[in-house]
Amino acid sequence: MGKIGMTTTVPVEVVYAAGEIPVDLNNIFITSTEAMKRVEEAELSGYPRNVCGWIKGLYSTALMNPDIRRIIAVTQGDCSNTHALMETWSVEGLEIIPFAFPYDRDADMLRLQIEKLIQALGTTWEEVQGQKERLDRVRARAWEIDRLTWEDNKVSGFENHLMLVSCSDFNGDPEGFARELDEFIAKAKERTPWPERSGGNSKGKREVRLGFIGVPPIFPELYDFIENQGARVVFNEVQRMFSMPFATPDIVEQYRLYTYPYPVFGRIEDIAREIERRQLDGIIHYTQSFCYRQIEDLIIRKKLNCPMLTIEGENPTGLDARTKMRLESFLQMLQD
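RE: above sequence
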C-alpha cells in the first residue's frame, strides 16, 4: 500500500479499491504547526505572493512528504491554479493523475472520469462499489455528528468542521476513523446542550446560530473566536459536502449531488434549505484571497435572503484585528 495525495475531495472509493492510502494534502498542511513556513517555502521556490495560500501550502506539503509520489489533482471543479501546481510538481518528479468534475454535472462525463481513475489506479467498478458501501458506513457516523451539532446542540462548530472535513480521506484508515467518531458521538451525547434560542449564554445574550459557507478557513481558530462572542456555527457548508450526505447507492450520482465542484447555483439551493432547516440567524461567507470564487459572493448575496458577512483570508497566520472587529459588529447586530 502506498500513499496518494489529493488536492481536494475526489472519488476516494477508487483509491481505497486500489489498495492505496489517500492523503488530503489540505488537511496535513493546515494542521501542521509549520503551515506558514510551507507557504514561505513555496514563495522561496518562485511562487508569486498573489497566489492562493492553499496552493502554496499544498505545493510545499507534498514535497515535504517523500512517501507521497503520486497525486490526484482536480483540473476542473476546484481551483484554476491547480493546473500550474500540477506542472510545478511534475518538474519535481511527482506523478500527476488528473481528475475533472464536468461543469454541467453530466452523468456520462462523470462516469467516464471515474472510469479513467479506475484504470489509472488498476482496480474495478466492483471493488469501487464495495468500498462505497464500506465508506458509507463511516459517513453515517459523520452525519450523526452533524445532526448533534444543529439539532441537539451538543457539538461545537470547530468539532463539526474537523470531523466532516476529515471525510475527504478518512484519515487514511476508515475503520480507525469510525472508532474515533463512535467515541466522540458517545461523549457528545452526554453533554449539556448549548442554550436554546429563547435562552441566553453566560453573557446574558441570546444564542446566535450561524452558517459557515465557502471553502474551509485557512485560520480554523475562527470557530473559537465566534463562540467567545456568544455565537455558534451549526452549519459548515463545504465540510458537510465532504461527508457526501446523500442516501444513494450509485457512486456516480453521489458525486453528482456533491455541490462544491459545480456551478454556484446548486450550492445556493443547498444553503437555502439548510438555513431554514437549521434556523440560522446569519451566514459567514469565507473567501480565499486571490481565488476566483470571491466573484461568486455577489451571486450568493443576490440569491440568499439571510444576513451575511463576507470575510477574506490569505495565510495561516490567524485572525487579524480588522476581521475580529467585523465579526464582533456582525454578531452584535444579530444579537440585538
